[in-house]
Design a protein that fits this description.
153 residues, alpha+beta, Methionyl-tRNA Fmet Formyltransferase, Chain A, domain 2, 3 helices, 6 strands
Length: 153
């Protein structure tokens, strides 16, 4: 998202620049909306960022990109020592990492360096850049996060 916003802003400035005189003069073309073709979508909520590890690595990657800053972010909930923790994921990328042995359940941490999660459709998704991971309610450093995840049951 952070890479897209500057490009969108630049395009908006160009479009507005082409139409500004007509807008100010009241001569801007107007096209009425066809209400028969109009659709509605509910308000976006933070819950829209919840990661469903059963979908493909590409779909998870697209979700992470769609809800990254300035939006609330993609997340997954884990429980450690009986306490729930929310992991916020700001950046990642799909990977074709293959593991030896049986397929692990979706959402399973497969590797810590790099951090790799199992996801749907028979592939594993290398989603997290450790510098872009945050545990809600904590301001941990990289070593703290790694220790937290290594001790994750």
């Amino acid at each position: 998202m952070t890479a897209v916003l500057p490009r969108v802003r630049e395009a908006a400035v160009k479009v507005l620049g082409r139409q500004l005189d007509a807008l100010l003069a009241g001569r801007a073309p107007r096209t009425p909306q066809n209400h028969a073709l109009a659709t509605y979508f509910g308000k976006r909520t933070p819950e829209d960022g919840r990661i469903d590890w059963t979908i493909s690595a590409r779909q998870i990657f697209n979700l992470v990109r769609a809800v990254t800053r300035p939006f609330p972010g993609a997340f997954t909930d884990i429980t450690r020592q009986g306490a729930p923790h929310r992991l916020l994921i700001w950046r990642g990328r799909p990977s074709k990492v293959q593991t030896n042995g049986p397929r692990q359940p979706p959402g399973q941490i497969l590797s810590f360096e790099p951090l790799v999660f199992s996801c749907g459709q028979g592939r594993h998704s290398k989603l997290l850049n450790m510098n872009m991971l945050k545990i809600k309610g904590a301001t941990p450093n990289r070593l703290w996060i790694l220790n937290f995840l290594l001790n994750y049951p």
